[in-house]
Write a structure and sequence with these properties.
heterodimer, A: alpha/beta, Rossmann fold, Ubiquitin-like (UB roll), de novo design (two linked rop proteins), five-stranded mixed sheet, four-stranded parallel sheet, 18 helices, 9 strands, 12% strand, globular, B: alpha/beta, seven-stranded mixed sheet, 20% strand
């Protein structure tokens, strides 16, 4: 059996992605037609049965999120699609936006129909300017074909429009509440919760925020049924997952795999997927973007689904798999990760604003041979505090990579304390100390 | 109305019953449990940026550290406000804040009244354990009344939220991202070049010494001052203010009841009063008809001169800032002289009132009128700059009771010392005017009223 699947990505690249009639020939809008005939309760039950976990990174059950949203009596409601794909190493939403924009539009329309919202926003990261044009064309075509706008598919009172909002370039805008602030034209800084976004979202009205892939998955769930979708994955999380593999692998690209149907070993080494590392042996791999944990060769047998990975202290996250061979120093890699968080911190809360900088300074000292005894413990304590005290997901996730490394490769950090880099890639003379 | 559902929880072992959507912070306050806060502002939505108010929550649906300012109480919560984990977390936050804070407490205007200082003391953070870079932004002393030292700023955003939500001016915003985030005014200009109306509310909001009143830098320490609640008499908004005094001198003005109270003093109310305390009238002055200059006179001569001049054709005028007690004295004076009494709001109205009169007695208590000699008059041009009062020179006789040499006082033949509202006890617009400082000079108005009885 093939390791990669072609379910969500079915027909990808075979026809003009913005052409509505071609999309319909490939089974497009079948899901929406079914949803139109269904009652809200049945739609929500179907979604809960499908076990769709949010594809953005937090893996919150979509069925639960929608049900909470459906209970709120305030109108109008808004549907927001988070396409601010900012996790380094993640590029699966790019594929969907470029080659399957109508699937995302259909998914968002299903959400609009179910939750009785008449407006949708898609927040596409600013760097995807070209994709924004493609997506706009798809929206225009869908509107011309009567699949968006007023009285969709001839149904009286079924109105729905989608507006593209371009991101301004901040990673933190991928955090839902910061994203909504950004849509409103405010600075992209997270809001304090409660109130939750389902109650007080964009323009202080109930808002549903989901990832691009989550919306696209709806087309499978409602055209083929929840049972079929669940079959694609495992008991606790249904469906397929788009993953993006990059780093020191032979075949860096985006792939679709069934959740739990492949192992990490398959993903990295199978010729159909990553194809293994180039020349040098695998040292570690980073899952789910910068805010995800780092895995090591001894964990390769883990099945790729939310529950199995969680048991190993790993996550699916955004679906990113960054593979590194043994030429990379782990401490230096962690320094780079922390540099990313320091740069992307919005500066609102104290632990993230100052804490990430202090952690970076410590890691830099370790990489430059200025480390002192106890720095590893200090670092561990520091990132633990930052993660537990930060206001939003950005700061709360900044410890994941470092903590997973400290758990399994502590000796590499301890060696840096003494001014020795086992990989030999850190310039230990920078800080004045000589190589031990 | 149906009875609202109550939520039951325990905070530090004390059972609490609160209404839904009550925050842990206010629930704790209701049973007298104090939780340290830096960014929290009463009356504004929680910001949750300083993270100092973390508490440990057990029971209920949630477990772990949460900020008390934003977390809603839930049934069955067991909140620990000073557990080992909480104290450790707060120490970490304070340590981080101190690592980006210029440590010069001895020189700091906020010394003794600094929230950061007192929390560091409470949690035993004597110095930061981090060595690293610090924010590098230049000191801005360009605003006429206050200074901004970014090296003391802890980014609690209280000033920004005050400017945005309380005063609605939106001058202060946050610039930059991450470690480089800083409070700034548009385009990072110098403060004086901004559209800031200098209401000074942000200065009052600052929990540390980053924003400080200029008079604060040299003149006083927080433990030396005395606060007196009174009413600002500079306009009919009647803001409730606290006059900050030291050694019988007014040094600063703060809002009674905090920044979210109804009436926030404006730039005039907050700064011009004590900036204009120069040029006081301390003895009765009589204008020398030949030289045109004022010469000190004794009380008897001056009072007799005024009493002799007031008759049926005179007008006795009191400014709107005159308290009710003073107004009553003015009425008595007018009655005994058979003159008419009037109230004027601003000098334009005074000129209208004076038209056709031969002699005029003015009770000009508005301190702002005297601030022409003070600095930065453009902020209080209401009375002092725009009205040409030289028409009063045409009158036969003008007597003015004024605390300072105002424009009107300069046109007078006799000037009697007056009291400012900081020195008066009385009523104004239904609110109390309390004396904050005492003055060693007799009050011209009461002296005249007694004299004419």
């Amino acid at each position: 059996m093939s390791k990669t699947l072609n379910i969500l990505t079915e027909g990808m690249g075979l026809y003009d992605a913005t052409d509505v009639s071609a999309y319909k020939e490939h089974g497009g809008y079948a899901a929406l037609e079914k949803v139109i005939a269904m009652e809200q309760k049945r739609i929500l039950d179907e979604l809960i049965e499908a076990q769709l976990l949010g594809r953005g990174g937090a893996a919150y059950p979509a069925g639960r999120k929608w049900s909470q949203m459906a209970k709120i009596p305030t109108f109008p409601k808004y549907i927001v699609c988070n396409a601010d794909e900012g996790e380094p190493g993640t590029f699966k939403d790019r594929e969907l936006l470029r080659d399957m924009p109508l699937k995302v539009i259909e998914g968002m329309t299903i959400a609009g129909r179910t939750l009785r919202a008449e407006r949708g926003f898609i927040y596409i990261r600013g760097e995807y300017r070209k994709l924004q044009r493609v997506f706009q064309k798809a929206i225009d075509n869908a509107a011309a074909a009567g699949c968006l706008g007023r009285n969709i598919m001839g149904i009286e009172g079924f109105n729905y429009t989608i507006t593209i909002v371009s991101g301004g370039g901040a990673y933190v805008c991928g955090e839902n509440s910061a994203l909504l602030n950004s849509i409103e034209g405010k600075a992209g800084r997270p809001r304090i919760k409660p109130p939750h976004l389902a109650e007080v979202g964009v323009y202080s009205l109930p808002t549903l925020v989901n990832n691009v892939e989550s919306y696209a998955d709806l087309t499978i769930i409602f055209s083929q049924g929840a049972a079929y979708f669940k079959e694609l994955g495992v008991e606790t999380s249904g469906g397929t997952k788009l993953i993006s593999i990059c780093g020191h692998v032979k075949n860096p690209s985006a792939y679709e795999v069934g959740l739990g149907k492949v192992t990490l070993n398959d993903i990295i080494n199978d010729p159909e997927l990553g194809g293994g590392t180039i020349d040098r042996p695998l040292k570690f791999y980073h899952l789910g973007g910068q805010s995800g944990p780092i895995g090591f060769p001894e964990q390769l047998d883990t099945a790729y689904d939310h529950e199995s990975l969680k048991a190993q202290g790993l996550t699916v996250g955004s679906g990113a798999v960054v593979v590194m061979d043994d030429s990379v120093c782990l401490v230096d890699y962690c320094r780079k990760v922390m540099e990313f968080f320091t740069f992307e911190s919005c500066g609102k809360c104290t632990p993230c604003r100052i804490g990430t900088t202090r952690a970076l300074e410590l890691l830099t000292a370790l990489c430059e041979g200025r480390g002192e005894e106890g720095d590893t413990d200090r670092l561990e304590e520091m990132v633990k505090q930052i993660a537990s005290l930060s206001a939003c997901g950005l700061g709360q996730a900044c410890d994941k990579a470092i903590m997973s490394c400290l758990k399994r490769r502590r000796e590499e950090f301890l060696a840096h304390e003494k001014g020795f880099c086992p990989t030999g890639s850190c310039n230990m003379t920078k800080g004045g100390a000589s190589i031990a | 109305m149906p009875e609202q559902k109550k939520i039951h929880l325990t905070i530090d072992g004390k059972a609490v019953e609160v209404a839904p959507e009550t925050t842990v912070l206010s629930a704790a306050a209701s049973v007298g449990v104090e939780i340290p806060t830096l960014c929290y502002m009463k009356g504004l939505p929680p910001d949750g940026s300083c993270r100092l108010c973390v508490v440990e929550i057990f029971g209920g649906r949630k477990k772990g550290l949460f900020t008390a300012c934003g977390e809603h109480c839930a049934e069955g919560m067991d909140v620990h406000t000073h557990s080992e984990k909480v104290v450790e977390a707060r120490r970490f936050i304070l340590d981080l804040l101190m690592s980006n804070h210029k440590e010069h407490c001895f020189n700091c205007p906020q010394n003794g009244d600094c929230r950061l200082q007192s929390y560091c003391m409470e949690y035993g953070v004597s110095e930061t354990s981090f060595v690293g870079k610090m924010i590098n932004k230049a000191f801005d002393g360009s605003s006429p009344y206050f200074n901004y030292d970014p090296k003391l700023c802890i980014m609690c955003r209280r000033c920004q939220r005050t400017c945005e939500s309380v005063t609605g001016k939106n001058i202060i915003s946050l610039n930059g991202r991450g470690f480089r985030t800083r409070m700034s005014i548009p385009y990072d200009h110098a403060w004086r070049e901004s559209a800031c109306g200098i209401c000074g509310s942000c200065v009052e909001a600052c929990p540390v010494g980053a924003l400080s009143t200029k008079s604060n830098t040299k003149n006083y320490r927080q433990w030396e001052i005395r606060k007196t609640s009174t009413t600002c008499t500079l306009c009919d908004k009647a803001c409730q203010i606290d006059l900050v005094t030291k050694n019988n001198k007014v040094l600063d003005i703060r809002t009674t009841g905090g920044l979210t109270s109804k009436n926030l003093p404006c730039s005039r109310g907050r700064y011009t009063y004590w900036q204009s305390l120069e040029n006081r009238v301390n003895t009765p002055l009589i204008k020398n008809a030949d030289t045109g200059s004022f010469e000190p006179a004794d009380w008897g001569t001056a009072l007799a001169l005024i009493a002799g001049k007031l008759d049926k054709k005179s007008i006795v005028a009191g400014s709107v800032s005159t308290t009710e007690e003073e107004q009553s004295s003015l009425k008595d004076i007018a009655r005994s002289a058979g003159a008419r009494d009037k109230v004027f709001g601003g000098y334009t109205e005074l000129l209208e009132i004076a038209e056709g009169a031969k002699t005029l007695l003015v009770n000009d208590t508005d301190m702002v009128s005297g601030c022409r000699t003070g600095r930065y008059c453009s902020y209080c041009q209401l009375y002092c700059d725009t009205v040409n009062v030289s028409a009063l020179n045409e009158l036969d006789f003008v007597a003015v009771i004024s605390p300072a040499m105002s424009d009107v006082a300069k046109t007078a033949d006799v000037v009697l010392p007056g009291y400012s509202f900081a020195e008066l006890a009385g009523t104004f617009n239904g609110h109390a005017v309390n004396p904050a400082v005492s003055r060693n000079v007799k009050n011209g108005l009461s002296e005249l009223a007694t004299f004419m009885k």
